[in-house]
Specification:
148 residues, mainly alpha, 0% strand
Length: 148
């Protein structure tokens, strides 16, 4: 029974490929075949790349974080202090991102797309490093990451 099912499966998968080859070779008259040299692709219009958005890279909930240097009375709790540190981190990254983005916007159109690509690459690398550091911090504090 298994052999019959496997054989029918192979036939069902292979049949459209065999049929397509036969149709393509037999039904096309030679007068309709166009040599590759005669096919001219239309020129792509110069497409300006859209600038990257901060929300592409920022952790959810920290898009509008503002740097806060003040310490409040609740700093004695570690979760309050760590939340302030996290908000400050994302606020500093956003300022850096916006400065680089303004630099890119002042360039001409050919260099602008390369600048946007570089900015995207840098921010992606920063996010990767952020994830690695946060996992390392959890590991150092003996927090089980895969507890579930």
């Amino acid at each position: 029974m298994k052999k019959i099912l496997l054989a029918s499966l192979f036939l069902a998968i292979g049949m459209p490929v065999i049929c397509d080859d036969a149709i393509q070779q037999d039904n096309i008259p030679q007068s309709e075949v166009i040599p590759a040299q005669e096919i001219v692709k239309p020129a792509d219009p110069v497409r300006e790349e859209l600038p990257p958005q901060w929300s592409e890279f920022c952790e959810a909930g920290y898009e509008n974080a503002v740097y806060k240097d003040s310490h409040d009375i609740f700093n004695i709790f570690s979760f309050v202090k760590s939340e302030r540190v996290k908000k400050n981190y994302w606020a500093e990254r956003r300022v850096s991102f916006e400065k680089y983005l303004k630099t890119c916007e002042n360039l001409d159109s050919s260099a602008k797309s390369a600048c946007y690509a570089k900015l995207r690459d840098m921010e992606t690398q920063k996010n990767d490093l952020y994830k690695i550091k946060s996992r390392q911090l959890l590991y150092e504090n003996n927090v089980d990451i895969h507890r579930r």
